Amino acid sequence: MADIDRVRELLHGASKVVVFTGAGVSAESGIPTFRDALTGLWSNYEAESLATEAGFTADPSLVWRWYASRRAAIRQCEPNAAYHAITRLQSRVDTTVVTQNVDGLHARAGAKDPIELHGNIVRARCFAGCGWRGDVDALEAVDPGVPPHCPRCDAHARPDVVWFGERLSEVAWARAEAACRAADVCLVIGTSGLVHPAAGLPALARSAGASIVVIGPEATRLDDIAEVVLRGRAGEVLPLLVS
Ligand code: OAD
What we know:
CATH superfamily of the largest domain: TPP-binding domain
Largest sheet: 6 strands, parallel
Distance between the termini: 14 Å
CATH architecture of the largest domain: 3-Layer(aba) Sandwich
Number of domains: 2
Oligomer: single chain
CATH topology of the largest domain: Rossmann fold
Radius of gyration: 18 Å
Helix content: 25-40%
Bound molecules: 2'-O-acetyl adenosine-5-diphosphoribose
């Protein structure tokens, strides 16, 4: 396929690459995306009740249980071929991985220092904001259906993910912006490109001179700024690019 060859060429000539991933890159590991009309999490669950501060305040147990069940499902999943190809790419060219995913699969596939813009579902932090942050497993859960208490200040612990209306970590954002400004090529994989500010990163990379490559099975909001669009599943396309 000529487009595949073009992207291989772009990668070959690049000294810095950014890989920007979304839920679609985990789909072939068995983790549902957010906006698929049938299986998407936000097609089946109410984001306002489950992924906002107000939702947690209204019903902390409901929110804690939902994240616990997602965490348990994710622990059963393995990184797929796309993840392994991205890790391989990192061993060949200076590549920064920036992900919107909270499932931790980049790290489990051996990726070096992935930037997790939206946090990580296996971590928790203090809901009252005392600054405590740690592994969920380190918390003493009296009842698995009830959010444990923050070990430092006794408020509720919450999942260490970014909810709607919340700011991203400034450190993560600064690193992601710097990587996008420095990149020659930005691979955009498995994201609808609808959630800002994350979805603005490929445009930033492009305005700083990077070639944008969008990879996914359906049209996305980011196709317009792409030099090449590769229509296909990440687990099939990525291994072809990094073989
Ligand atoms: P979406 O569910 O919005 O988009 C997933 C994209 O992946 C769609 O474009 C699908 O067509 C595509 N896709 C599906 N299967 C694929 C496959 N096998 N290979 C490649 N692509 C595939 O997910 P995101 O864009 O990640 O926020 O959503 C962005 C944010 O919205 C998430 O990080 C989450 C959510 O609310 C937080 O958790 C804070």
